[in-house]
Write a structure and sequence with these properties.
By secondary structure, the chain is an alpha/beta fold. It folds into three domains: 266 residues, no CATH class; 209 residues, no CATH class; 141 residues, no CATH class. The chain contains 20 helices and 22 strands. An eleven-stranded mixed β-sheet has the order 1-2-3-4-6-5-11-12-18-19-20, with helices on both faces. A hairpin with a 5-residue loop joins strand 8 and strand 9. Helix 7 packs across helix 8, helix 9 runs antiparallel to helix 12 and helix 10 packs across helix 11. It is globular. The N terminus is likely disordered. This is D-(-)-3-hydroxybutyrate oligomer hydrolase. One of its GO terms (biological process) is butyrate metabolic process. One of its GO terms (molecular function) is hydroxybutyrate-dimer hydrolase activity. Keywords: Hydrolase.
C-alpha cells in the first residue's frame, strides 16, 4: 500500500519554522524531526513492502534459490510500483559483479551475509520487508530537483538504532547505492538513506519536448510540472531548429552545478531519515544523539559522504566510509611517494574534470604504445593521428616522428604530470572514451551551461545502443531506456555526445578520437582545465581553442565544490583501488587522506589502498572480454582484485569503533592475488588478503608533508 502526504502552503510555512537547513549550528532533538523538512517539495510518499510483491533490497527481483537478481521487465503501461521495482533491482546489481564464476552468491550478493559482523540480521533471506519514504528537494527554479528515499527494514532495532547514508555513485538515480550502502544497511538491520544528489534519472528529449517524470514515465514537458525529474532550459527557437534526436540530462544541463551540493544533499537525506524513523516509530524518539549514523558510499557517492562530513555542523554523522572518492582539494601542498615514483604538489589533488581533460588529450596517443598490455584490444581507441597532432601543437616535445616514441611520451605525461599510477595503465586504454565523456558532462555542469550553448561544439542526443546509431526513440522505449542508468553523456547507453562540427554529427563514427574536429573539442575542454589553460598559454595557442569566459565559468564551478580535508574529527575509513581506471588515487583517496593528515592530524582517519582493486569491479566478468581484463579473451582469469569485501570490513570496524571504542586498523596497502597470478578458476578466499591490525611493511606513513605508500 502506498500513500502520499501533501503539504499545504500554510503548513509548509509552519514547518519552515520548525526545522532549519543543514547549516544550522545546533543539534536537533527528536521533536524537530516530527515535521517534514522545510526544504522538501511538500510531497512525501510512504510504501509498505510485504516481501512477496515487493521488498526493499531488490524490489522483489531475487530468486531466493539461486540468488540471481532479475528485475521484471517493464513497459510504457507499467505503473509507478512496477517501475520502482525495476529501478531498484537494476541498481542493486549495478555495483557488484553479478555473474558467475565471479563472486556473486559467495562473496557478495543478496544472500551473502558471511563476514558481516555488526548488527547482522539473523536468518537473513535476501528479502527485506519494511517501509520506504520518499520525497524531493525542490531546487527553487521549478525545473529540477534532488530525490531522497529512506528505507526502514522490519528488522530495525529501536533499542540500538542505526542508519547508513548512501548517496548514489556516478550520476545514477536515487537507488544508485542499493548494492553497496543499501545492501550493507539492510543486512545489518539498519535504515538506509539514499539521494540521487541532483544527477540521477532526469532526461529531457528536446526533439519531442518530453521529460522523464519522478514516477518513471515520459510525458510532455509543459504538462509535467513539478513531476518532471528535469526540464531543460534552452535558447528561444532552439528546439525548432535543432535535430529531433537532441536530448540532455539533469547532471549536464540543470544549470544548478549539483556537485557543489552533494554534501548538503547527503545531510538532507539523513535529516529526512530521522523524520521517517520518527514517523515509523512515533513512540520512540530518535535523533542523532541516540542513533548511530554512518555515511558510506562509492565513487561520486564517496566524495559526497566526505563533503557531508566536512559540512556537518549539526552532528548528524558519527562515522564515514568512502570508497574510490573523486576529490578536488582546495590545498595540495604535499608529496606522494610510491616506490621509486614521486608526485609533487602540482600532480596531486586535481579535480575529476582537470584529470579527465588531461586524459582526453593524451590517452588515445598513449594507447599506441605496444608495450601497453591492452594495446591489441580492438575496442581501445588508438590514434596515430592524435600523436602527430599533439607534436605539431607542441603538446609533445619529442623530435622523433616514431609513433612508439610519441606514444611513450604521452604515457609518461599521464604517469608523471597528470599523476596517474603505472598500475592504472593496464585498463585505462579500454576506457579512453570515458575521459571525453566526463569532460563533456562536467564542464557543462560546472559552468551552468544550457544544452543550446553547445559548449565546445558538443551537443547530446538520444542513441540506439544496439545499432550504434543516434535516432529518435520509439514510444515504447523512451522512458524505459533511462531508468537506473548512469547519466553521464556517453556513460549512459542511451545518451551520447554529438560533435556538431562533424559532417554528419549523428553518424556512428562521428564521435571518435581520430577526427580533427574531436581533437579540437578536446582542446577546447582542455583549455578550461588548470593545466591545459597554462600549457596552451605557454605555447601561445590558448586563444585558438578557448572561448571567452569559459575557463572562469568552469573553474568557478569547481571551486564551489572544493573540499577542505577537514572531517571535523569524525572517524573515517577511505578505500581506493590502486588500479582504478576512472579516479586516480593520487587525485582521490591518497590526496584526501594526505590533506586530512596535514590539516587535522586525525588518528581516527585511515586510508586502505587495495592492491589490484579497480573502479568498475561490477564489470569484472560481465564485460571483461571487451575491456582487456583477461590475458586471453577466452580465459576467465583476470588481473584484478575486488574492493567490496573490504567495504564490509570497514563498516564492521566503524560500528565497533563507534560503539566499543575499538581502534580502526591503520592505513595500509591491502595485498590481493588476482586469478591470473594464482591459477585459480574462480574467485576464492585466497584472493583476498587480510586487513592487518599491525601492517608492518605495508603500513602507509605520513611524515613532513609526505605520504609514503609501500610499493
Amino acid at each position: 500500500m502506498q500513500r502520499t502526504l501533501l503539504l499545504t502552503a500554510a503548513s509548509s510555512l509552519i514547518l519552515a519554522g520548525c526545522m532549519g537547513s543543514s547549516s544550522d549550528n545546533t543539534k536537533d532533538s527528536a521533536a524537530s524531526y516530527r515535521a517534514v523538512p522545510a526544504w522538501s517539495d511538500g510531497n512525501v510518499s510512504v510504501l509498505n513492502t510485504d516481501g512477496t510483491a515487493d521488498d526493499l533490497l531488490t524490489g522483489a527481483s531475487l530468486d531466493v534459490t539461486t540468488g540471481a537478481v532479475s528485475p521484471v521487465a517493464v513497459s510504457t503501461a507499467s505503473d509507478h510500483a512496477e517501475i520502482r521495482r525495476y529501478q531498484l533491482g537494476n541498481n542493486y546489481r549495478s555495483m557488484m559483479d553479478p555473474v558467475t564464476p565471479g563472486g556473486w552468491g559467495v562473496h557478495w550478493g543478496p544472500l551473502v551475509t558471511e563476514g558481516i559482523q555488526s548488527h547482522s540480521v539473523e536468518n537473513f533471506t535476501g528479502v527485506v520487508t519494511g517501509v520506504e519514504y520518499a520525497t524531493a528537494v525542490d531546487s527553487g527554479d521549478g525545473r529540477t530537483n534532488v530525490r531522497l528515499v529512506v528505507q526502514i527494514p522490519s528488522s530495525f532495532n529501536v533499542e540500538a538504532p542505526c542508519l547508513i547514508a548512501g548517496p548514489s555513485s556516478g550520476s545514477r538515480g536515487v537507488y544508485g547505492a542499493a548494492g553497496t550502502a543499501g545492501d550493507a544497511a539492510l543486512k545489518r538491520g539498519c535504515a538506509v538513506a539514499y539521494t540521487d544528489k541532483g544527477t540521477g534519472d532526469g532526461v529531457h528529449l528536446i526533439g519531442s519536448d518530453e521529460v522523464l517524470t519522478l514516477d518513471g514515465k515520459m510525458t510532455d514537458a509543459a504538462a509535467a510540472g513539478i513531476q518532471s525529474a528535469f526540464t531543460a532550459d534552452y535558447a528561444e527557437g532552439f528546439r525548432e531548429t535543432t535535430d529531433a534526436r537532441t536530448a540532455t540530462t539533469k547532471h549536464a544541463h540543470s544549470q544548478q552545478n549539483p556537485g557543489k551540493d552533494w554534501g548538503l544533499n547527503t545531510l538532507q537525506s539523513i535529516e529526512f531519515a530521522f523524520y521517517a524513523l520518527n514517523q515509523a516509530y512515533p513512540e520512540t524518539a530518535m535523533h542523532p544523539d541516540n542513533t548511530t549514523v554512518i555515511a558510506a558510499s562509492w565513487s561520486n557517492g564517496g566524495r559526497s559522504v566526505l563533503m557531508a562530513a566536512e559540512q556537518d555542523s549539526k552532528g548528524l554523522i558519527d562515522g564515514v566510509v568512502a570508497v574510490e572518492p573523486s576529490t578536488a582539494m582546495a590545498e595540495s601542498q604535499f608529496t606522494i611517494i610510491q616506490g621509486s615514483n614521486s608526485w609533487g604538489p602540482d600532480s596531486v589533488g586535481w579535480s575529476l574534470y582537470d584529470m579527465h581533460a588531461f586524459g582526453a588529450m593524451y590517452q588515445t596517443c598513449a594507447n599506441n604504445l605496444t608495450a601497453n598490455a591492452a594495446a591489441d584490444l580492438t575496442n581501445a581507441a588508438k590514434s596515430p593521428e592524435r600523436c602527430n597532432r599533439l607534436k605539431q601543437l607542441g603538446l609533445l616535445s619529442s623530435d622523433s616522428d616514431d609513433l612508439q616514441v610519441l606514444a611513450q611520451e604521452a604515457q609518461d605525461l599521464m604517469n608523471t604530470t597528470a599523476g596517474l599510477l603505472p598500475e592504472q595503465n593496464l585498463a585505462t586504454p579500454a576506457f579512453s572514451s570515458v575521459f571525453s565523456e566526463i569532460t563533456n558532462t562536467y564542464a557543462n555542469s560546472y559552468g551552468r551551461y544550457r544544452i543550446s550553448d553547445e559548449l565546445c561544439g558538443i551537443s547530446f542526443a538520444s542513441y540506439n545502443g544496439n545499432t550504434k546509431q543516434f535516432e529518435t526513440l520509439s514510444a515504447e522505449d523512451k522512458a524505459l531506456r533511462f531508468l537506473g542508468q548512469n547519466m553521464i553523456a556517453g556513460g549512459s547507453r542511451w545518451i551520447q555526445p554529438v560533435n556538431m562540427k562533424a559532417a554528419d554529427p549523428y553518424a556512428a563514427t562521428a564521435f571518435n578520437s581520430t577526427a580533427d574536429h574531436n581533437l579540437d573539442a578536446d582542446l577546447c575542454f582542455f583549455a578550461m582545465s588548470q593545466y591545459g589553460h597554462d600549457k596552451l598559454s605557454e605555447l601561445g595557442i590558448l586563444d585558438t581553442y578557448k572561448q571567452n569566459g569559459d575557463f572562469e565559468r568552469v573553474q568557478g564551478g569547481i571551486q564551489e565544490a572544493m573540499m577542505s580535508g577537514d572531517l571535523q574529527g569524525k572517524p573515517t575509513v577511505i578505500l581506493h583501488g590502486r588500479s582504478d581506471q576512472v579516479v586516480a588515487p593520487n587525485h582521490g583517496g591518497r590526496a584526501y587522506y594526505a590533506r586530512n593528515r596535514q590539516l587535522a592530524k586525525q588518528d581516527n582517519v585511515v586510508y586502505w589502498e587495495v592492491e589490484n582493486g579497480h573502479h568498475l569491479e561490477m564489470f569484472g566478468y560481465l564485460l571483461a572480454p571487451n575491456l582487456g581484463f583477461y590475458a586471453d579473451p577466452s580465459d576467465m582469469k583476470h588481473r584484478y582484485g575486488y574492493i567490496h569485501p573490504y567495504f564490509e570490513q570497514a563498516l564492521d570496524q566503524m560500528f565497533a569503533h563507534l560503539k566499543e571504542g575499538t581502534a580502526l586498523f591503520p592505513s595500509q596497502v591491502i595485498r590481493t592475488t588476482p586469478m591470473l597470478e594464482s591459477g585459480l578458476e574462480s574467485i576464492t578466499d585466497s584472493m583476498f588478503g587480510e586487513v592487518h591490525q599491525q601492517p608492518g611493511a605495508d603500513q602507509i606513513l605520513w611524515s613532513e608533508n609526505t605520504l609514503t605508500i609501500p610499493d
